[in-house]
Amino acid sequence: MCGIAGYVSPNRDPSVRTGAVARMNAAMTHRGPDDEGAGTWGEATLGMRRLAIFDPAHGHQPMSTPDGRWHLVFNGAIYNFRALRAELESAGRVFHTACDTEVLLAALAHWGEPALNRLRGMFAFAAWDSHEHTLLLARDPFGIKPLYLHSTPAGDLLFASELNALLASGRVPAAIDPQAVNAYLSYLAVPAPQTIYRNIVSLRPGECAVWRAGKLAVKTYWSPGKAGANEVTPCRTRAEFTTGLRAQLEDTIRAHVVADVPVGAFLSGGLDSTVLVALMTRLGGARLKTFSIGFDDPGYSEADAAAANARHLGTDHHASVLTGERVADELNRILAALDHPTGDGINTYYASQATRAGGVTVALSGLGADELFGGYPSFRNVPRLARWLPCWRALPGGLRETLLARWDRGDTRRRKLADTLRHSGSPAALALLQRRVFAESTRRSLLHPDANSAYVPHPEEASLAAGLNGADLFALTSAAELRGYMADVLLRDSDMMSMRHSLELRTPFVDRPLVGWLARQPSVFRYTPARPKAALAEAVRDLLPPALLTRPKRGFTLPFAHWMRGPLKPFLEDTFATASVERSGLFSADAVQRHWRGYLAGNDTAEWSRVWSLAVLIAFVNRPRPVIS
Predict the structure, then answer these.
(1) pLDDT greater than 60 at residue 555
(2) What angle do the packed helices 271-281 and 303-313 form, to 10 degrees?
C-alpha cells in the first residue's frame, strides 16, 4: 500500500518535475511511512511513498524492469501475485524480490494492457514505457484505490493518490467546482470522474488511461455488465448455492489475509464483519486481533454485541469508546486531513487509528456485503417503485404536475419522492436516485443562484442502463450500489481515513472472483426480501454466534444527532454563521441557516446526516488552499 505521484511533460525541465513530485510525496507520508522514492526517465518523473506489506525489506519503488524499459509506481495489493509469478517464471521471467510490485511490473512488461484482466486485487498504478514514451494508468474494477489526474492544454499530466498531494505539487490550481458542489449535495460525494476541484478528474473504477505525446485517452476495461465469468455455471438449487457461496467466501478470505505484516480485522456487532472474522479464525495461526468502536450512549453502541461475537470466535478483541467531546476536540485535525468533503467516514477514522495503534498493519473490513446481498432499503424500494411507476405515468399530465408541486412543498421524504418520479427514466436511474441526499428543491435553495445547476443524472446511469440492459431489478440495484454509494462514498472514505493512520484496509467482499461468481447466480438465491442477507448468514451459519442470527440488523452510525446539539454545536454555529456561509460565494446564508434552525427545532434524528454533510462541505470549501508556484 502506497501513495503514488507523477509528472509527465514534453515541455517541463526535469528539475521542475522532480520538485513537484517531491512535494507530492511529502504530502503523502502518512500513506507510506516505510520508504520513499522518485525517478526520472525522459518525459516522466514518478514518485512513491511505501507502506511495506509484502517483502518489507525489498520492493523499493519506482521499480524498473532489468532492460530499463518499464518503470512502475503502484498503490495497492495484488492477491494472486504468486500464481501470476509462477506463470511468468514459466515464460522465462526472473524475479529478485518476493513482492507483488515486481510481479505487476513483469505482468505489464509481458502482457501489456491486457494484464489488467488477470489482476485480482485493489490497485492504482502508473507504468512508464521508455521505448514507446507512453504512460499507462489504471484503477481497480471497484475503485478501492483512488487515482486523480490533472492535465493541461500544453500536454502536461500530473497524477497522485490524493487530491491534497496534487495541490501540494504547486502546479495544480485549487479552484472549487460549483458543479461538483451541486453533485455533493445530491449524492454525499462527488461521483467520478468529477472531483471537488475544477481542474482535477478521477479515473472511474475499472478504467485505464494512456498518455502519449501530450494526449490522454481514457477507456473502460471492466464494468458491472462484464462481471459474470462465462466459465461459472449458475446454481440450480439453494443448497448448491449455499455450498458454492461458502467455498467462494473461504477463497476470498484466504486471498485477503496474505501479508508479511500483522493482519487484523474490524469487528462490529453485525453480520458482515462477523462472517469475515469467523472465516479468518478458521485459517489458524496466531490469535486474531479484532477492533471495534463503541459509544458512551448505549442506544448507539454495538460494543457489547461486538465483544460477544469476539468471545464466541476467540479473538484478541480491542474496544475503544468514542465520545462527542473527543470528536469535537479533534475535529479541526480531521477536517484538515480530508482529501475531499464527506458527511461520512469519522467512524473509519477512529477504527483505523485504534487498529494501527494495536499493532496491526493490515485490517479486513466487511464493507461490500450490503451491496452484494441486499442489505439496504433500496433493494426493497426499487421494486416497489418500479411497480407503481407505470400507474403514475398513466395519470394525466396536469394531475402529475399538481401532485409534484404539492410534494415539493412537503417534508424531505415527499420532496425526494417527487424527484424520483420526475427523473426515473430507466431502472438504472431509479436505483441510483435512492442515494439522493438533498431533494432538488432543497439543493437549489441552499446554493447561491450563480452556483446553481440544473438536475444532472449520476454519471454511472448511462453505463449501467446499457451494460445491464435486461437484468432483473436486484442485479441492477446491486450494481448501482456498487458503482454509486460504495465507490463514491464508502470506499473513498475508507481509503482516506485508513491511510491517514498508515493502515492498509482490505475488503474481501469487494473481490472480483466473488462478485463474478455471484453475478452468474439467480437473484432469488442471493436475496430474500423478508430476510436481507439471509444467504450470507446461511453460508456460514455453523461458525456464527447463535444470538447474531436472531439479532435485528441496524446500520452502524455515530450518535451525531445528539452530539450536534452538544459538543459539536459550537463548530456548527461557527460554520453556519453568515460570514462563513457567504465567504465562498457559493451558498445562500438564509437558506443554510433556516435548515440549521429547523434541525435544532425538530425531532427528526435522521436529518442530522444532511445537516452534517452540509457543514463539512462549507468548512472544506472555506479552508485555505495552496496556489500555483
Answers:
(1) no
(2) 20
